Amino acid sequence: MLSSLISYSRFIYTIADRHPSVKRSTLVLKPTGVAVGELEGRLEFESGITLRVYEVINFASGTLTYYSYSVYRGEERLYWYDPQPHPGSLALASTHPHHKHVPPDIKHNRVPAPDLRFDQPNLPFLIREIEQVL
Question: Is the pTM of this model over 0.90?
Fold first, then answer.
């Protein structure tokens, strides 16, 4: 799916069709180079839950080169995921660099994120995770 702008576009723009829990999508996938694209926007769910999405995709290598996923309830950030390396944290070594920021000290409290990857779309996992909370 990450191998071409066309295939990833089909995947992105049919998310609400495959996931009825998604009430609204503002995701936009735009090319930013010959083989590079950016995905940005939000997926809105029931109960005021919103997933804010940012990805940079290299279609030539079929990989995400960067991502940021944040989950909000209203204006309150519940948690977020990012691949910012924290090489000094042994607790995150098993999924380096993928990790999740969680309360109570959301900026500094990080846990491993074994379901996130650079070589496949992460949105199906993130949507399932939100659906479990709903």
Answer: yes
